[in-house]
Write a structure and sequence with these properties.
The protein has 16 helices and 14 strands. It is of the alpha/beta class. A seven-stranded parallel β-sheet has the order 3-4-2-5-6-1-7, sandwiched between helices. Strands 10-11-9-12-13-8-14 form a seven-stranded parallel β-sheet, sandwiched between helices. α3 crosses α4. The chain binds adenosine monophosphate.
């Protein structure tokens, strides 16, 4: 179905054409008509599906069809978990609304930067406000925003907002909105907490599921390289070099880990930059810009910092460590295989992470292919043995191509229960 059949106005179709989109993505095909009609929406969709345009285009259409008063009250409020996502959504809204006349005003507010300039920018009134929940509450407390004319509320990446502890802020914000309004909720995963939130929030929502619930993007090939924890950095360098990866996003579980890995990579002339919560907004923005422009080959990120960042057609994502929560795995690999392109998600899995790997498989409802890289095999580590059993013989350290060491390896094999290639299916 072409975009022209969805009922969007010409200025929006013009912006869509300029963005180079020819056909709506599956979520857009379903969400756009529903939002145009004013329905509430419950959408199971992760980043990379085109969800932003899925809500932004019809909301802009609705705004542009209405007469508005000169004091420009906020009519569309979009909440996102992170600054990066807020900035990105704000950019998309401005881009899609570029030809709408009279021009709509979009502002983005998030924490970690000075509040005063944001207060100044809000003073003249805005039509669309994109905000992270904490900063929005601060602005409300300072009387810098009024939310009593909001017609549509979008909770983008709602699961992530709850993970980050924003539930109270979200509830406070919702209490400030008019009772009668449109609610759109987007989430990659559906936990009990999300279900609770949606029950009180959405009225007869249209339900959209573009990938099966909690299932990783279909275009992402997933593989787990079983390896020794102490060899992960070496293995990563080896993969970057031999596979000639030019643009790879690497996830670590800690800020320190991200810094250490970045240093190691830079030392061997693989240009890397880290983004995490201890980095200033400026440092994060420049690391991301360098990565997008191709000056930075490896972007090392923690989950929170990388949330929602949009890098078109990212070919590789590496889980240097598996995330603590399986849902984060789904979020992480959502960075690759974007907009129908093939992508590959590689997890470096040490023995102690095998239970986490199994959890991930349970969540995505599919097995992940396990492999070993010659010279970096997992059989270099003995599995923890019960005390009554004799310690297994270990392979000689210098013999890198030895794959099995008898009893110990049998045990590892039985634990890891190797499976076939996985491309997840519905
Ligand atoms: P999102 O899931 O909203 O983060 O979007 C993911 C990426 O897909 C962004 O880079 C968008 O610019 C792009 N995109 C959104 N809609 C389309 C479309 N209909 N055709 C091609 N690319 C799109």
């Amino acid at each position: 179905m072409p975009f022209t059949k969805l009922g969007l106005s010409d200025p929006l179709l013009r912006a869509i054409a300029e963005a180079g989109y020819t056909h709506p993505s599956p979520i857009q095909e379903q969400a756009i008509p529903a939002v145009l009609k004013g329905h509430d929406l419950l959408a199971a969709a992760q980043t990379g599906t085109g969800k932003t345009a899925g809500f932004a285009l019809p909301l802009l259409h609705r705004l542009s069809q209405q007469h508005y008063s000169s004091n420009r009250p906020i009519r569309v409020l979009i909440l996102t978990p992170t600054r990066e996502l807020a900035a990105q959504v704000g950019e998309s809204v401005s881009q899609y609304g570029a030809h709408v006349h009279p021009r709509l005003k979009t502002e983005v507010v998030f924490g970690g930067v000075k509040i005063n300039p944001q207060m100044m920018r809000l003073r003249g009134g805005v039509d669309v406000l994109v905000a992270t929940p904490g900063r929005l509450i601060d602005l409300v407390n300072q009387n810098a925003v009024k939310l009593d004319k909001v017609e549509s509320l979008v909770l983008d990446e709602a699961d992530r907002m709850l993970d980050m502890g924003f539930i109270r802020d979200i509830k406070k914000i919702i209490a400030l909105l008019p009772k009668k309004r449109q609610n759109l909720l987007f989430s990659a995963t559906f936990s009990e907490e999300i279900r609770k939130l949606t029950t009180g929030l959405l009225v007869n929502p249209i339900k959209i599921e573009v990938a099966a619930r909690n299932i990783a993007a279909e275009t992402v090939e997933q593989v787990a390289y079983l390896c020794n924890k102490t060899q992960k950095a070496e293995l990563l360098c080896h993969l970057i070099k031999t596979e000639q990866w030019q643009q790879v996003l690497v996830f670590t579980s800690t800020k320190h880990g991200a810094n250490r890995l970045t240093e190691k990579l830079n030392k061997i002339d693989i240009k890397a930059a880290a983004i995490h919560g201890n980095k200033s907004q400026g440092a994060r923005t420049s690391a991301l810009a360098g990565f997008k422009a191709g000056h930075v080959r490896v972007l090392v990120a923690t989950d929170v910092a990388a949330r929602g960042i949009d890098i078109a057609l990212l070919p590789y994502v590496v889980n240097y460590e598996l995330p603590r929560s399986s849902a984060d795995y789904v979020h992480r690999i959502g960075r690759t295989g974007r907009a129908g392109e093939e992508g590959k998600a590689i997890s470096l899995v040490s023995h102690d992470e095998l239970p986490a790997l199994k959890q991930v498989e349970k969540l995505i409802g599919a097995a992940i292919k396990r492999e070993q890289v010659s010279g970096y095999e997992a059989d270099k580590i003995a599995p923890p043995m019960p005390p009554e059993e004799p310690r297994p013989q270990r392979a000689p350290r210098n013999n890198r191509n030895v794959k099995s060491t008898g009893k110990a390896m049998d045990k590892v094999k039985s634990i890891i229960n190797a499976t076939g290639k996985v491309k997840t299916s519905k």
